[in-house]
Predict the 3D structure of the following.
Amino acid sequence: MTLLPINSLTLTLVFILGLCIGSFLNVIIMRAPAILMQQLKQQAHEILTISPQKTEKKENITRHSRCPYCQVKLKPWHNIPVVSYLTLKGKCAFCQHRISYQYPVVELLCAIIPTLICGYLGINISSLLLCLLFFFLVALSVIDLKHLFLPDQITLLLLWIGLFINIFNTFTTPSSAILGVIIGYAILWFFYWGFKLVTKKEGLGYGDFKLMAAIGAWFGIGAIPFVILTSSIIGILYALLLSLQKRQQQRMIPFGPCIALAGFIYPFIGHTLMHAYWSWVIM
Ligand SMILES: [Zn+2]
């Protein structure tokens, strides 16, 4: 069911909305790990019943944005997505410290990809849900790249949304979505313990299992073989790229972005790529 016609005006609106959502995601990406760390410290203090935690500034999503280096409050126009980065030439207006490329890249990705999705599929419930999935996956990927973990608050919310939308057979049947969660989680869980028993090292994190389960919730059990195979290929290519750049000192490679990319491309080219994999195996 089409919600809005596709024309230059609606696609421009999608683009601008995507820029704003990208700007909000940058806030989540910056603050969610700090909020989680504060909560963990608080819990540790309560469990250990040691002296009360020293009062430190509480992080939250709604506080006014500041420069992370000089802590000066940003002016409203410094928050305009991409435009502010270009006008400030990628530097803080107060201390001239370089602003991370992450900000314009996330904002542009969140504008361009949803515009392409809506241009290709039309503006309907399915395409808007795929845009929502994309926003979640961008936030998770950047957090995993920066901090090597995937917050439960985001992976589990994504999983519940996937189960909920498939009550209405949006991308798959409810039973396939439930099986997708169970099998997606279980396969990586077995792989994790098998790898740990053999090598005494941890190859994956529990956040990876939950993200795989979330992709299973969105696209059903049929997506799991493709996502496992494709994310592994992406992971190997990423590791090779890093070793070519002589950056082996990085101890762990985040697997979340690999699952996210494989899960996101599944509804578009999953079946075609799976046929290609099979034809290579048969050859
Ligand atoms: Zn500054």
Observations:
- The mean pLDDT is 90.
- The radius of gyration is 21 Å.
- Residues 8-48 form the longest helix (41 residues).
